[in-house]
Amino acid sequence: MAFNYDPNSANTEKASVDTSKKLRIGIIGTGWIADAHIASYKKMQDVEIVAGADLIPGKAEAFFKKHGVEGVKTDYASHKEMLADKSLNLDAVSVCTYNRQHAPCAIDSLKAGLHVLLEKPMCVTIEEAVEIMKAEKESGKVLSIGFQPRLDANMQMIKKIVESGELGKVYYIQTGGGRRRGIPTPFGTTFIEDKTAGLGALADIGCYSLDMVLNAIGYPKPLTVSGYKSDFFGKDPNYSGYRADKRAEYAKLFGVDDFAAAFVRLEGDIILDFRIAWAMNIDTCGDTIILGTKGGLRIPSTECWNGSVGGAMSIYHEVCGSQVRTEIPIIPEDKNMSLFDKKIRSFLDACKGLGAVPVPTSQIIYNQAILDGIAKSAEAGKEVEIVIPEI
Predict the structure, then answer these.
(1) What is the tally of structural domains in the chain?
(2) pTM, whole model, 2 decimals?
């Protein structure tokens, strides 16, 4: 397959939407990420937001009031009560809870016969991921994971380059990302406590980094992992990234990773060299590099890694015996629809049978297996085999 770059082919046109059948949506968990979900749902003409649930009394009601959405039922003590309310006639839910509630909320929703948009990370452990997929298989419903960066035209260009054969056989990948000071605590401690998050930088931004490269190479199965993780910054009461009046409290509560690294062996004799950080004493963990037998691809890093491409990419290859570098310019942002809106739209279309599941669990279970494997290897202090049961 030949590789040809056409910057005009990457942006999508706004498609017409059939509004004759509105999908009835519920939101489970009304914290920070739910703001983005409801903002996108409000733009969709074939959606009616009818219910919401949160463990904190009154939080869901205040959330919908803040967003100007009226007539939404919120008087539920738990997501299970909402799912049991047959008067809602729900079609689908967004699961926007903290990490450790992803699995139970997704499983319960699927068992209730609903389509599910599950925020990233998929969950915390591989065991949870397997149970989610079992529930998905039994329900026959749509389950998509919230990886909107892969809908970016630049991310899709990475996949196009690999699939074109321009790089030859891919054998080594270096990837990751980091923030110099970026432990996420502006909304409290749900990201940093083990009882709510389970994983730290690994799950928050590490899953994005893995998806960028694994999606590009066709999501090969992970075989083994030698992992490391640390928490030097998060547990330091002098960490300057915390608000001054909360440093001692946050450092005491910190129970996840703020840095992780791993050496992962993938099917197809591919090596993945990975590192991710919420906090570190350098500006970047380095660019993402995909090495192949015919060419190499460099993907510039960003200062505050959030699942994006940091600048023009470069292909290093040979032309007529000469070593050359081909620059792939950044593709302009799609002005018609944001990445988050695309995530919501593609999920809704899949629910209506108008398209494939945008981010299927058959891929993301490998992403989750690597995250889980890194954590388990780090705790064991040795390389571990990744075992994914048949589902």
Answers:
(1) 2
(2) 0.94
Residues 246-294: tens digit of each pLDDT: 999 999 999 999 999 999 999 999 999 999 999 999 999 899 999 999 9
**Helices (H) then strands (E): counts for the chain:** 11, 14
Residue 281's closest CA among 236, 313, 225, 226? 236
119 secondary structure, DSSP code: E
- Do 263 and 248 fall within a single domain? yes
Q: Is the pLDDT of residue 6 over 80?
A: no
285 inside domain: yes
- Name 254's Cβ contacts closer than 8 Å, sequence gap at least 6: 183, 192, 193, 231, 234, 235
**Calpha distance 342→148 (Å, rounded):** 7
> How far is residue 351's CA from residue 209's CA, in Å, rounded to a whole number?
27
Residues 109 and 175 placed together within one structural domain of the fold: no
**Mean pLDDT in residue range 378-389:** 97
Residues 227, 329, single domain; the answer is: yes
DSSP characters over 158-218: HHHHHHHTTT-SEEEEEEEEE-SB----TT-STTT-TTTTSSSHIIIIIHHHHHHHHHHTT
C-alpha torsion sign, points 187, 306, 110, 386: negative
Q: Please, what sign has the CA dihedral across residues 332, 338, 339, 345?
A: negative
Cβ–Cβ under 8 Å, residues 117 and 92: yes
- Pairing type for strands 92-95 and 23-28 reads parallel
Q: Which residues span the domain enclosing 324?
A: 149-336+367-384
Are 154 and 140 in the same domain? no
